[in-house]
Amino acid sequence: MKGLVYGGPGARSWTEIPDPVITAPQDAIIRVDAVTICGTDLHILGGDVPEVASGRVLGHEAVGTVVETGSAVSGLTAGDRVLASCISACGIRNVTITTGLVDTFSTPRLLAMLVAGQLDLGHMVTHRFGFDEFSHAYDVFADAAHSGALKVLVSR
After folding, report:
1. Using CA atoms, how far apart are residues 93 and 97, in angstroms rounded to an integer?
2. Are the CB atoms for 87 and 73 separated by under 8 Å?
3. 145 phi and psi angles, rounded to 5 deg
């Protein structure tokens, strides 16, 4: 499979990476069907997050399909559609994050409204790309002042 790999400040590549494997009972493998690009990724690519080392695969806020689960995972089975959302730095150790920007209290209600067709978020996605255009999608998102990008979606 391919992934966008951070190669140090200003360096990235769309390259082959190893397929994931279950290594712990609480693991799940998700085939990513669509992903958005976040400003956090731009900070990482700019070298502003020294905790992120060269070789990190970027991307988050993904929608995908469960492929396999570890023995401790309950409530998910192969074929389930899921939303996987975390910050790009989720692999960094010993970090405390305090924020008033993200209040997940309303997330279950908002997801239920979305599923029920009560929310139309289509207008928020201003640019759409295929996975083979991942690197270009980052360029467009990084130059939002010129491109008008609000949210960039990359999908199969």
Report:
1. 11
2. no
3. -60, -35
The pairing of strands 125-130 and 151-155 is parallel
Superfamily name with CATH number, domain 2-92+122-155: Medium-chain alcohol dehydrogenases, catalytic domain (3.90.180.10)
Please say whether the beta carbons of 36 and 54 come within 8 A: no
Q: How are beta strands 60-69 and 81-84 bridged, if at all?
A: antiparallel
Q: In the chain, which ranges are continuous DSSP H helix? A: 39-45, 107-115, 134-142, 144-147
Residues in the chain: 156
Nearest CA-CA partner of 27 in 81, 74, 69? 69
Measure the CA–CA gap between 29 and 21, rounded to whole angstroms.
7
Q: Quote the pLDDT of residue 104.
A: 67
Q: pLDDT 10s per residue in the chain (156 long)? A: 888 899 999 899 989 989 989 999 998 898 988 888 888 888 889 999 888 889 988 876 888 899 999 999 998 899 998 887 664 445 555 444 444 555 667 778 877 888 888 888 778 899 999 988 988 999 999 999 999 999 898 888
